[in-house]
Amino acid sequence: MQYNRILITGGAGFIGSNLTRKLVGHGYKVRILDNMSPQIHGDDYTQSQLYQSVKNIAEVMIGSVQDQEDWGKAIKDVDVIVHLAAETGTGQSMYAIEKYTDVNIKGTALMLDILTNEKHSVKKIVVASSRAIYGEGKYVCTEHGNVYPLERKDEDMAKGDFGAKCPHCGNDVELKATDESSMNHPTSVYGLTKSVQEQMCMLVGKSLNIPVVAFRYQNVYGPGQSLKNPYTGILSVFSTRIMNGNEINIFEDGKESRDFVYIDDVVNATMMGIERKEADYCCFNVGTGSAANVLSVAEMLVAMYKKDTKIKISGNYRLGDIRHNYADITLIKSKLGFEPKVTIDQGLGKFACWVQSQEIEKDGYDASIDEMKQKGLYK
Ligand SMILES: NC(=O)c1ccc[n+]([C@@H]2O[C@H](COP(=O)([O-])OP(=O)(O)OC[C@H]3O[C@@H](n4cnc5c(N)ncnc54)[C@H](O)[C@@H]3O)[C@@H](O)[C@H]2O)c1
Ligand SMILES: [Zn+2]
Fold first, then answer.
1. How many other C-beta atoms can be found within 10 angstroms of the C-beta atom of residue 98?
2. How far apart are the C-alpha atoms of 88 and 51, rounded to whole Å?
């Protein structure tokens, strides 16, 4: 083992808590810096299962990445920083812009300032990026070859035309897997902050000779995912709706798709990033390499919970949402030998099983939609 102590910011969150357990199991000492955000952990974090799952195996510091002093204490005697703390709601980021830039960008800047200006023991930085940095991702136009469609137009979507279009000729385009060299053009403030986080870490890491590894996670799901947060995590949102006996409202025509990657695969990829030299200074997509449409996963969940939930395909849409995206995982396969092991059927089964063992959370979905409506972002 090359490293001893690892700092995980946001270590009490979904990915962080799962990573903490894995690292501790492998003999690492883990320190967590987490502000126990109420949106994730509820008003009393001491009751949060996520918190309870790490408090006895890691050194938990309650503090914020927005606070320089908290960073200073957290970095002491640390070999690797895994920077996961972030605000993560794509839709919410469009009307909480200062908050998203403060936590995600300033939070990262404070870390890099300390590494640049103070004595420290940090030998590697792993930063959580996101598929959101690509926006719509990669497509092919019969006339223009590989293209990166722009945000879809309100006027098209209002007519029920949800497909991505060629940015040059406006024709319909065919979906491809998005590779790491695809254009970065986020369609949300969240995506923009992730892109800045990643680039800032890479740039400063190179100048300091501290290797940086960025992981562009696709839609991560699995046990431990917050069931409280109505702003992100479509499988959690659906599950909470189903368990509360509410109908599911599917946006657009239900054919929009995502690359749903199971938490254990994400943790394995992240471990490889921490431990392997071959990962240094690389940005990796982390996904399964295939897309599942939203309607089909909703149907699978309803069947797994054995409920007769009504699934309504509403034609509603959110401005800034992308139509499709799935990862080309050639790079992480070839450089790190990563192979996603959990299929969507297996993963959803494990997730649904875990949800059924949980207390059903109050459903904050309608309120979150009302918020978006008020801001003119939900149609
Ligand atoms: N889950 C996904 O599908 C996904 C996809 C792409 C990227 N990511 C990225 O991975 C990282 C982890 O995501 P997650 O799904 O575990 O999210 P999460 O919301 O479950 O965890 C984030 C953690 O960060 C903490 N936090 C929030 N603001 C903080 C602050 N100011 N200071 C300290 N801690 C703070 C929260 O309390 C929470 O415990 C994030 O950077 C996210 O952008 C996640
Ligand atoms: Zn074209």
1. 9
2. 18
- What's the pLDDT at 363? 76
Positions in the chain short of pLDDT 50: none
> Helices (DSSP H) in the chain: which residue ranges?
14-25, 38-41, 49-55, 68-75, 97-101, 107-117, 154-158, 189-208, 234-243, 263-275, 294-305, 330-336, 344-356, 365-374
pLDDT of residue 80: 98
CATH superfamily of the domain spanning 5-138+177-374: NAD(P)-binding Rossmann-like Domain (3.40.50.720)
DSSP letter, residue 227: S
How far is Cα of residue 150 from the mean position of the Cα atoms in its chain?
21
Q: Which helix (H) or strand (E) holds 261?
A: strand 260-262
| Residue 214, CA atoms < 13 Å, CB-side half-sphere | 21
Measuring CA to CA, which residue among 207, 208, 184 is closest to residue 196? 184
Per-domain residue ranges for the chain?
Answer: 5-138+177-374, 139-176
Pocket test for ligand 1, best of 9, 84, 98, 221 (most atoms within 8 A of CB): 84
Q: Distance, CA 171 to ligand 2 centroid (Å)?
A: 6
Cα gap 235→202, rounded to integer Å: 32
Q: Which ligand is closest in space to the CA of residue 84? A: 1
Task: Report d(CA 294, CA 39) in Å as an integer.
Answer: 24
Q: What is the pLDDT of residue 231?
A: 66
Task: Report the distance separating Cα 177 and Cα 77, nearest Å.
Answer: 40
**Closest ligand 1 atom number to CA of residue 88:** 43
pLDDT for res 322? 92
Would the pTM count as exceeding 0.90?
Answer: yes
Cβ atoms of residues 204 and 105 within 8 Å: no
- Say if ligand 1 is within 6 A of residue 65 CB: yes
Which atom of ligand 1 has the smallest separation from the CA of 64? 32
Nearest atom in ligand 1 to 33's CA: 33
In the reported structure, the alpha carbon of residue 102 is separated from the centroid of ligand 1 by a whole-number distance in angstroms of: 14
